[in-house]
Specification:
This protein is α/β, with parallel strands linked by helices. The protein contains 7 helices and 6 strands, in the order H-E-H-H-E-H-E-E-E-H-E-H-H. It is globular, with a radius of gyration of 17 Å.
Amino acid sequence: LLRSAYFLGCGGVVVCSKNSASLSAAVSKASAGAMEELPVHAATQLMKFLQASKDNGWKVIGAAMSDDSVKAGDVTLDGPTLLVMGNEGTGLRTLVLRLCDTVVQIEGGDVHRAEQNRHQGVGGDGGEVLDSLNVSVAGGILLHRLLFG
């Protein structure tokens, strides 16, 4: 995600110091050096950080698949904005979602068609249908959609 954020021109990245990978040499290598070029900050208390950011005029956008989320391409950025990504297992915590001004989702392929194909024995091995992306891929897509429409 650091590499995508740098490539797409983000001003910086904030990670939650409690539930994120430590900013190590391995992370730097995976980011192809973007970690050294992009301001990266660790927030020890994410909720307080997000609230302070909102109090200082920042808009907070969360990423989640929910009935309340809007398509990322429908959001217009009109000031300083934070995109909050959850973990790959459970997504954003409820308290974090409540702080978000907007919740966005990625417009994906037709999952229902894939499910019908699976039941008809078309494609795949009959396993679960993939209906989500890993956080790095989702973050890159969302950043691009938000920054460039």
